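Q: How would the structure tokens look for this protein?
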Amino acid sequence: MSLRFYSTDTATVRDFEPVNPGEARLYYCGATVQGMPHIGHIRSALVFDQLSNWLRYRGYKVTTVRNVTDIDDKILANSAASFEQGYCGNYPEEEWWALAYRFERIFSSAYDTLGIKSPTYEPRATGHITEMFGLIQRLIDRGHAYPALDDSGDVYFDVRSWGPYGSLTRQNIDDMQAAPDADPRGKRDPRDFALWKGHKEGEPQTASWDSPWGRGRPGWHLECSAMAGKYLGERFDIHGGGLDLRFPHHENELAQSTAAGFGFANYWLHNGLVTYEGDKMSKSIGNTVSPEEMLETARPLVVRYYLGQAHYRSVLDYRPTSLDEARVAVERVESFLANSGGGAPGGEVPEAFGQAMDDDLNIPQALAVLHDRVKAGNSALSAGKTDDVELEAHAVRAMTDVLGLTSLMDLGPRNGSGAERSALDSLIRTLLAQRADARAAKDWARADQIRDELTAAGITVKDSGDGSTWSV
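A: Here is the predicted structure in token form.
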């Protein structure tokens, strides 16, 4: 099977054909650093980390760009609120740029804690104003943008001038709501969206730049088009982000970039949202869960496994038991690797795992393969089949490397190794034999006592039709 992805623009699964053979260039939307990250932000970054890992495993030279939106209406509003209230959390009044940088560092810390690798480059919007000027002027020259009619200094994209507008989300322009990103008085059409926003009274002078259309700042959608084009070229392979960004953000990115004459992205990949017991997470309802809250109750390994276990396009539903379930699943993998010596890095993944990952990054099927091989490895451990243990450990390690789990694991010896493990195995097998005899004699009290003693020592016993096995 060739590598294939579901692309939002065509609503089909397509074979991956890179612009440049052997290369994969990916842009995905990063944080708008207006406040604390939520688990939806982290899930999106984790999905594209998994994608990048798999592309590298398949031999592609991968370039990833993840932007930081560090100038935005909400950033300015939150900064202004901090001055009105005197404090922003534990921080005194913050300039907008200080607030943005503080939250940028918090996002970065969350990424690092969960083993999400840094992108090839992480540009900030405020560092690319010149490129934005060039893109705006190009759109004006091609008849797809115009300065506002009310001398506000705004510049708008003319949505009716671009026939394919709405193609990404398959909407008719007449059915769309008005663009909410600027005062509509200077627009030709309420749906036209802002490329440049004229400076307004009361806004910080530092939050504006001199431009050919007057002092102001960039529109949100324009920022990503300018940064993607600068670092990945006029045409690149994959554009990604959360499902909630399809409209208007990605629709507008696609329109302004293609109207400027650029090919832009060949594939559009969107990850699903995170819900709380089936309901949309909302601060007003009070059902949000932050990465910080998750990490207070679970290890980074467990949180990463939980956030990355569903198919990337599906909804990930959080329940109070979710992290416990994830912990049991991933610690079983971790325990096997620790007990088997950790496996060697650089191995090959099983064929079934590769087929699942090639098929639109089907993580659930890939995890099923992983857990099957862990089960086989534990059986080999219990039977003392050293060669089989080594074979399974190498396969499991290759899969956990691709999934970004290995670096978060504690692979120190659990049951000892060599002579230590043999001695421990002999002692436990003796107890298990005594327990089997007690059960055969229906001496349930003695059988339970042996099991309780093993449990108290940190030993888990699993009974099956083939007998009992143990693990730490």
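The mean pLDDT is 92.

The longest strand covers residues 235-242.

Upvote if useful.
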